[in-house]
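Researcher: Sequence recovery benchmark, item below. Answer with residues only.
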């Protein structure tokens, strides 16, 4: 008779353990769903005051190319390639550009702002060049397939 008592409690202990595990999983799920995601940091525009405006002509964009390729999902992606040259005397930490894609009538069909370097990139030293590549999954059908115009809209000098 002593052996029957522990055997009869085993299913009850398993049920209580399973219920506790389900409650714990449910609590984690609810906390994850009800907790708002952390706010994304709003990227502040780079300065473009008189010193940056004076330095901007020293930045040159060379070897412009546009190419299309398929990504791993077999979707067409358009890439804008080029080389940026710092032809001035100061190191450049970051460059913000505005690209304008035009139609056959030279009207802007897409305007896009991009930063060229990652936040951890080494500054572009005087006389140095750096290749750039910007990818676009979708571009307006009206785009004339020409290289976009590029305007420097922000500089972070060192």
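Model:
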């Amino acid at each position: 008779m002593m052996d029957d008592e522990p055997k009869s409690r085993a299913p009850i202990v398993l049920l209580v353990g399973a219920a506790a595990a389900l409650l714990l999983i449910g609590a984690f799920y609810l906390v994850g769903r009800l907790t708002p995601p952390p706010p994304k940091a709003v990227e502040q525009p780079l300065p473009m005051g008189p010193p940056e405006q004076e330095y901007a002509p020293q930045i040159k964009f060379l070897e412009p190319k546009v190419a299309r390729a398929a990504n791993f999902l077999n979707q067409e992606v358009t890439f804008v390639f080029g080389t940026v040259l710092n032809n001035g005397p100061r190191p450049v930490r970051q460059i913000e550009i505005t690209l304008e894609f035009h139609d056959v009538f030279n009207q802007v069909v897409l305007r896009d702002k991009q930063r060229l370097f990652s936040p951890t990139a080494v500054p572009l030293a005087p006389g140095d060049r750096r290749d750039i590549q910007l990818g676009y999954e979708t571009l307006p059908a009206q785009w004339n397939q020409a290289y976009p115009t590029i305007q420097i809209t922000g500089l972070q000098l060192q």
